[in-house]
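Example 3.2
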Amino acid sequence: MKKFLVLLILFLYSCSSVIYRPNYSRLRQLEIKAVDEIKQRLNSGLPFRKDGFCYAIDLAEIMQTGVEIGDSIMFNRAYEILKKYYIIRDSWIDSSILWRYKPGVEPDASGTAETIHCAHSIYLAYKKWKKEEYKRVSYSLARAYLKHGYMINSDGFIVKNYFNYQTRTLSENTYLINQRPDFLYEIALENNDSEMLNKAKLMYNAIIGGYVGKGFFHSIYDVGILTINPVSNGYFSPNSVFPLISSVDIATSILNFNQKPAREILKFFENNFGRWSDFYVYRDGDFIEQSKGNSTSLVVVSAIIDIYFALSKPKEYRNLVIYLSQILADKVNMFLNLSAENLDSFYFELARAIRTMHRINERGI
């Protein structure tokens, strides 16, 4: 019976160009509703999560969304919060972004992902609205991002996860998802910074060293692994578990240097229709879904569709994206009926989904 249902699903998917049509009207309505939801919440104050902190990565995603949809009010509300609470002046790593803020709590650490995502969002705002302040701030943040980094070998540069303001030390390891050579490269070009350009290329070299195959990357690089296991290259994924969003975002970050991982993760996602999961386990040379629910998060659906657009809409994946656009709409609608205070990823996922819906509405599938 289960095999029959899987075959039926696969048949329906193969016919999706007939059964499914992009529902642009619904996506447009949901985009407007989601934008209004975020702006109303920003009007009420900081976008807190249920632990009482406001996370800089949420602000970065909101800012980028404001720029991409041309909503200067959304951008400015998040930007002013960022300037007021998050840019830390420090004698060593100046102008880095505090990874999270809570009134009355002392700053504990910067965040490299937060710093470069904010830098890029503000850079995009400069390109759109030509305000010199945005160019200056984005460049300052990008330089602070580089201060977290080091050469892992003669050809690779990587940034660590954070700088601890209490211990005055950098983190021991780093997540590959925190490396954004694409963002760094754009900002470097704008500011004619040849050293930053070179670091972006060296960062790509470090990232590709963690590539496993089929679009998947190891999650972590830790030089300490080399002392324990000299034959290791320093890359690993705890318990051989690979978060799908991590590999999708890493593949996106190197797309302008190498399209192969992005194309392979898109192909993997299509080939595993009926076996989707947010986490995959690497076993016997293959990636096996960790859970059997055949579902994935809103952010993964958004990211897969975004890769499709970044690769200039390869026609062989159009049916897949038409199908995913329906899932996207259903998940956004569900988010809008939830309480942000009870869902940690509310702002992060919803802001990214707004951009995805906007791309579908503007460019078509």
